[in-house]
Amino acid sequence: MNGADVLCDVLLANDVKVCFANPGTSEMHFVAALDRKPVMRCVLGLFEGVVTGAADGYARMTGRPAATLLHTGPGLANGLANMHNARRARSPMINIVGDHASYHLPLDAPLTSDIEGLAAPMSNWVRRIEGPADVQPATEAAFRASLTPPGVTTLILPADAAWGDANADSPGKVELTPPPAVGMEAVRTIAAAIRAAPGRVGMIVRGRAARADALEIAGQISTACDVRLFSEVLIARMQRGRGRVAPTRIPYPVDAATAMLRDIDVLVLVGGKEPVAFFAYPGKPGRLVRDDCQVLTLAAHGQDLHAALEALRDELGIKPSQLTVVARAFPDEATPNGRLTEDAIALSVARKLPAEAIVCDEAVTSARRFFALSAFAAPHDYMMGTGGSIGGGIPLATGAAIACPGRKVINLEADGSGMYTVQGLWTQAREHLDVVTIVFSNRTYAILHGEMRNVGVNAIGENAKRMLDLDHPALDWVSLAKGMGVEAARADSCERFDALLDAALSRPGPFLIEAVI
Q1: Which of 46, 243, 292, 373 has its CA 20 to 30 A from that of 125?
Q2: Which of 444, 40, 61 is nearest to 239 (CA)?
Q3: First vs last Cα of the chain: how many Å apart?
């Protein structure tokens, strides 16, 4: 048995049964070991950003890590953007990065690089395996670190540690530390603050607190004590839809966000952080709440958020039978017709969304209305890129589909963002994944036009247009998708879009709709 076999065995013993991979020469012994373990599902991504983004989507839907397999420093570097998103989403992930044999490193071969230095900013934990005997303890430590609390771990596997003989103990389950309980002093402090400022308290829920059962408790507190319920701007995962409590998402634009939070005197954080502006803008604040707003943390990432909400409800004297305000009937709105628009797409998808679907939203500016409408849609899970790094949508949908076979995945995708990781469509075709990709084809980086205005530039000249627009030539998403093995069609009217969406939802397998707006 060699070190690569031991690494596989430790992963499988701890139910890590999916490996998203883009390997190279240094990882061939690990590839051979994976070949001897047919229970491990190996999923090839044609670009490392697809690999790490898919592992993020898988983790968000299962709560458990997948493994990734990346080739030395450059391969890791190609995956860093979606590792950044995963770290911001607090997704458990185990990145296995191959490296030269330890004795080869002093020769400074072309692929030699500072892997630890590359990995550290986008990882919560990094370790280099010291040799074959270190494979088992290092892999067990990586698994433990990925879940206590959940986060991105990176394990560097030198080639000689992979091929060397390893007489390891039979791997077993790694013992995990249970999440720490919330402190009752914090619960009592927050309960007193809520009682003292009725109607002027906000609560931000994130992570486990954004699941349907925890949202119900947050909704009971909201209803009984006049607390306003919010989500962060970028949502790692939230359970939405009819019959569920629907927090209001804090807007991305600074002016809209500060206006929404202007009358909040007390802000309670449950699994999240204080909201801040994405960027600094001339003459605008970085904090979104007033400077005199009292910001209190009920429970942080890694704590038992559900139990924390229960403790706060009990401290406030609210009965578990307390009714909540939930979304019911869909708003009475006419069915759009004629030329296709962003709002028409959002309305159509929300109305037609299958029960228990998974929505991966990277439409950026184009699908902003969908989130509000999704409160009235069939019950579903909703996810976004959480680190602001674009190119996460297609991979996120890919990983979610592998995590949840039998559930339809809808990817709302901006055309510019989609081009960062378009290779993920090939993985969807190869794995026969049930993903419907809707590309908002406005042929521009629309959000950047808005950002130019936000920094005070109102007149955009030819040079700026050439950097912000995606025309000349226009992207042909139908051809791109078909080239990746995914069936696709184009819609430029509401009627055509509805017909294509109905067809895509009626059968399994990947399908792409280029929605020209």
Answers
A1: 46
A2: 61
A3: 57
pLDDT digits (tens, 9 = 90+) for 210-238: 999 999 999 999 999 999 999 999 999 99
Phi and psi torsions of 131, nearest 5° = 170, 180
pLDDT of residue 446: 67
pLDDT score of 85: 98
- Asked if residue 173 lies in contact with residue 296, where contact means CB atoms within 8 angstroms, the answer is no
β-strand 238-240 against 380-384: which pairing, if any? antiparallel
Nearest CA to 438 among 382, 378, 363, 499?
363
Nearest to 395 by CA among 431, 370, 350, 371: 431
What is the pLDDT at residue 365? Answer: 81
E strands, 120-265, where?
Answer: 125-128, 152-158, 201-205, 227-231, 238-240, 248-249
3-state secondary structure of 156: strand
Instruction: Give the pLDDT of residue 332.
Output: 85
For tokens 């409160």, name the residue.
Answer: 375
Residues in the chain, pLDDT under 50 = none
Is the pTM higher than 0.90? The answer reads yes
For residue 317, with 0-12 CB atoms within 10 Å meaning exposed, 13-18 middle and 19 or more buried, which class applies?
A: exposed
List phi, psi (to 5°) of 22.
-145, 80
Contacts of 30 (CB under 8 A, 6+ apart): 4, 7, 8, 23, 69, 96, 98, 157, 162
Report the residue count for the chain: 517
C-alpha span between 416 and 197 (Å, rounded)? 44
In 10 A of CB 104, how many CB atoms? 15
Strand pairing class (152-158; 125-128) = parallel
SS3 213: helix
What is the b/e burial string over 328-345, where b = at least 16 CB atoms within 10 angstroms of the residue's CB?
eeeeeeeebeeebebbbb
DSSP string, 83-127: HHHHHHHT--EEEEEEE--GGGGGG--TT---HHHHHGGG-SEEE
**405 token code pair:** 């076979």
Q: Tokens 């709440």 map to which residue?
A: 289
Please give the structure tokens belonging to residue 132. Answer: 């074959």
